[in-house]
Specification:
InterPro entries: Glycosyl_Trfase_fam3, Glycosyl_Trfase_fam3_N_dom, Glycosyl_Trfase_fam3_N_dom_sf, Nuc_phospho_transferase, PYNP-like_C_sf, PYNP_C, Pyrmidine_PPas_bac/euk, Pyrmidine_PPase_CS. It holds the Pfam family PYNP_C. It is built from 17 helices and 12 strands. It is of the alpha/beta class and 429 residues long. It folds into 3 domains: 61 residues, Up-down Bundle (Transferase, Pyrimidine Nucleoside Phosphorylase, Chain A, domain 3), CATH 1.20.970; 244 residues, Nucleoside phosphorylase/phosphoribosyltransferase catalytic domain (Pyrimidine Nucleoside Phosphorylase, Chain A, domain 2, 3-Layer(aba) Sandwich); 88 residues, Pyrimidine nucleoside phosphorylase-like, C-terminal domain (Aldehyde Oxidoreductase, domain 3, Alpha-Beta Complex), CATH 3.90.1170. Helix 5 packs across helix 14. It is globular and about 65 Å long. The two termini are 37 Å apart. The structure holds uracil (URA). Uracil binds next to helix 9. The site of uracil (URA) has 6 residues, from helix 9.
Amino acid sequence: MEARAVIAALRRGEEPTAEGLRWFASGLADGSVSAAQAGAFAMGICLRGLSEENRVALTLAMRDSGHVMRWDLDGPVVDKHSTGGVGDCVSLVLAPALAACGVYVPMISGRGLGHTGGTLDKLDAIPGYAVAPDEARFRQVVREAGCAIVSASAEIAPADRRLYAVRDVTATVESLDLITSSILSKKLAAGLEGLVLDVKVGSGAFMKTDEEARALAQALVSTANAAGCPTTAFVTDMNQPIAAALGNTLEVDAAMRVLTGREQGPLYELTLALGAALLEGAGIADPEAKLRAALDGGAAAERMGRMVYGLGGPMNFVEDWGRYLPEATVIREIPAPVSGHVASIDGEALGLAVVRLGGGRTVETDRIDPAVGLSDVVRLGARVEQGAPLARIHAAREDQAEEAIRVVQNAIALGDPAEAGPLVRERVG
Ligand code: URA
């Protein structure tokens, strides 16, 4: 087998063989495929697309390019993945809530991408929390806490690690086949028995239309199921932040408020919808009632505490999280320039404002300031009087706060009352 044969088949518009795709994935992992060949391969798939059968073959080949975890636990092993949004800290609530309901969640998460936040960046805000433990510790925390949220080790789907870096610089990220195989290869390598996917659509998501989101949801569900992992997807609304906060510390705080029963709202509701589907698939009766009980009764918070402590964070984080999270130097209200109802929210603009405040990265080497961001963001449809707050800004410097205030005032349009659409738009699978 030779890289050129696989690339030439793609160039001619022919389907590569499953064996060719397997060979290519292992060549990506062991370095025998060059970066130029990887780029040509990615462009070939972008332009020509793969059959469903070959998308599954590529996903399995990328999963098998590294270590595939196996578990020996007394309950089902499940996980969720979100395609990314703003104020989306569902993982921080969902993983411990699921653990409290008797399933195990070895959650391999990512960092922020573009305007969207990343779960690992949020967890980095917790002093001591190790997002990259060795496998023995990862396994121990999953066993003892029921959940552990960590980064992918170098051994997990190395073919994806390499191909993703090449796609990033060759304008080949936007391919349904490549996105599907990339996301699923890492998730499936964690040895899952069930998966739920949160495919976001709207102003704060990568997918701006229902059609795009539905196509991705269908590709992910059919591929994951064919790869042997029972999977459901939800297309969910991202026309406004899920939590009313954006930024790493602020989102940990939002998640802790839901986990400790201080707040409900969309973060709570979305956690229930995604979690109930996973528990139902795992054969657990009354899934929604169990999740509500775990969240309202403190069992989910207790699992969060065990996970944080198991991964190096403070022992009493759940009891006293405010003490451990850094606070920004400049905290100011953002006044509404006119009176009106919140007619639309440009989620991408809000996310980029947080990145500019230092809450995300513009290049890989940027250091994140965990304390900065937005809190108390108004919701669609709310009535706001001139001068009343649209949100609160958390910044490191006055000039940065000033700039972000202008961006937020432009991103939140005030006018006639707008209907916020349903949080869950569609279920696939
Ligand atoms: N996230 C991934 O892990 N891979 C992609 O291709 C896109 C988003």
